[in-house]
Amino acid sequence: MSHQSISQTGLGVLYMTLAVFMYATVNAVVKDVVESYPLMQIIFLRFFLALLPCGYMVYQSGGLKSLNTPNLKIHIFCGGLGVLNLALLFSSFKILPLADVNAFVFSTILFITLMSYPLLREKVGFHRWLAVISGFGGVLIMANPSGDLFNLGALMCILFAFGDGILMIFARLLSRTDKSSTIVFYCSFFAATVAALFVPYVWVMPGGIDFFKFLFLGIGSGSAQILLTYAYRHAQAVLVAPVIYTSILWSAFYGYYFWGETPSHEAIVGGSVVILSGLYLVYWEKRQADVV
To answer: What's the Rg (C-alpha) of the chain?
Structure first.
């Protein structure tokens, strides 16, 4: 590996680290405001304010002409699903510790693998099935099958991960014809539009420091998406994807520092199984890419 490629990889890892930190911080801010403000208002401001950095991505990609797409209906669907997904995720913050929620969210990659055949016609194969089955075993551990299997918070997180997996599959499909900036912009635009329909009925004017929390919530989310794009642009996915799992550390820190939360035993054990399954999937994909 040349010095230049090492430098590019290091830059990619740095961008991914910053993106993960931003997303974890945004989630902590959401957990802070979700008890005091209507859910749809939070979702609207998260997507609406994210249009500022997303607009910058569009500008960098060629301006308004880059928004031309043959897939407008799919973008609208993804925007609506994005609202539902965040409603589930943000609601779970009221019930579970941040670190527990984060551990459940890692199961998104398992749902992506599970749906890759019916939606993308990609062969799953033995190794992928092995990772998916063991990963969902970890999800069951986190959901606490000893009698609380259908804990509402756990159910919300699992449904979010499923919905997020669908969004990632559609993003992969859309990437065949649309630029990354186009996909990200339309997701935020249509999600903000859907959420805006509810805002007049629930709006509560943010006061004082809460105004800046909401500002960070939206701009931080959009900026994290830009950093994520830069990360994959500068380094191979297999090298930067494992950095995503450092978000569990940030979530545990924020949860403990601000709310005195500690990850449950089930989240630690089950989350570890999910993370190892995810890493195995990344490793296997890398091996397959090298063979090809």
So the answer is: 19
Tokens 């010095």, residue?
3
User: Does the global pTM surpass 0.70?
Assistant: yes
DSSP 3-22: HHHHHHHHHHHHHHHHHHHH
Two tokens at 245? 């799992």
- Using CA atoms, how far apart are residues 168 and 77, in angstroms rounded to an integer? 13
Range of the domain at 284: 3-291
Closest CA to 114 of 74, 164, 178, 73: 164
Report which secondary-structure segment, H or E, holds 106.
none
pLDDT tens-digit profile, the chain (292 residues): 444 554 667 777 888 889 889 999 999 999 999 999 999 999 999 999 999 998 888 888 888 888 888 889 999 999 999 999 999 999 999 988 888 888 888 888 788 777 776 666 666 677 777 777 787 787 777 776 544 445 788 889 889 999 988 888 888 888 888 888 888 899 999 999 999 999 999 999 988 899 999 999 999 998 888 888 887 777 666 667 677 888 888 888 898 889 998 877 777 888 888 888 777 777 766 666 555 5
Query: Which string of DSSP letters, residue by residue, matches 127-181?
Result: HHHHHHHHHHHHHHHHT-TTT-TT-HHHHHHHHHHHHHHHHHHHHHHHTTTS-HH
What CA–CA distance (Å, rounded) separates 61 from 55?
10
Q: Structural domain tally of the chain?
A: 1
